[in-house]
Amino acid sequence: MKLIWTDPAIADRLTIYDHIDVENPRAAVELDTLFVQAAEHICNHPAMGRNGKIPGTREWVVHRHYLLVYEHIADKVLMLAVIHTARQWPPLLDDDSF
Question: Would you identify the family this protein belongs to, as annotated (predicted)?
Answer without folding.
Answer: Belongs to the RelE toxin family.
